Amino acid sequence: MSSPIRAALNSRSHLRGAVGNGLSAMKKVDRAFIAEAVRAAFEDSIDLDDAIEKGHEREPRWDYLLGHRETTKIVGLEPHSAETSEISTVIRKRKHAREQLAEHFRPGVEVAEWFWVASGRVSFLAHEKATLSLAQNGITFVGTKLLAKHLAPLEARKKK
């Protein structure tokens, strides 16, 4: 059985070589943004920012894709400074990631969840307005760590 990200990539994708087992494709410092209790839930990972840079140097790039073992779904993880001024940047990163991945994913494959994790202190001027804007753009702000509760919607959808 193939891992979630490997299974999602078409046979022509050069991203295949950048997929690592578990969280091995992530920078060690960024693994700290995932709660230890859920790290083993990921079958594979890719440093998308690095893997897709060639040809997209001037475009915003999303940081990571993670393959969730139990559901075989793919989630995006973006460690980024959590300030009001950065909301539009993260939204642009997701938009571009979806376009960039279109040539690499098999037909019908999409990232199931897009998570933004604060890489420092959280400084949203209007927190409700910020989270609403993100939600309208398919992004969930998770605070300073990705926790099991953030993955629960993936697992709930699998059971349906």
Description:
With 160 residues, this protein is an alpha/beta fold. It is 34% helix and 23% strand. It has 7 helices and 6 strands. Helix 6 links the parallel strand 5 and strand 6. The longest helix has 16 residues.
Question: Which keywords apply here?
Answer:
160 residues, alpha/beta, six-stranded mixed sheet, 7 helices, 23% strand, globular
Q: Enumerate the spans where pLDDT stays under 50 for 5 or more consecutive residues.
A: none
Which bin fits the share of residues in helices?
25-40%
Q: Give the number of DSSP strands.
A: 6
List the strand order in the largest sheet: 1-2-3-4-5-6
Distance between the termini: 22 Å
DSSP summary: helix tally = 7
Summed over residues and divided by their number, the pLDDT gives a mean of 92
For the report, how would you describe the main beta sheet?
Answer: 6 strands, mixed
Backbone structural class: alpha/beta
Q: Percent of residues in beta strands? A: 15-25%
Mass-distribution shape: globular
Order of helices and strands: HEHHEHEEHEHEH
Cα radius of gyration in angstroms: 15 Å
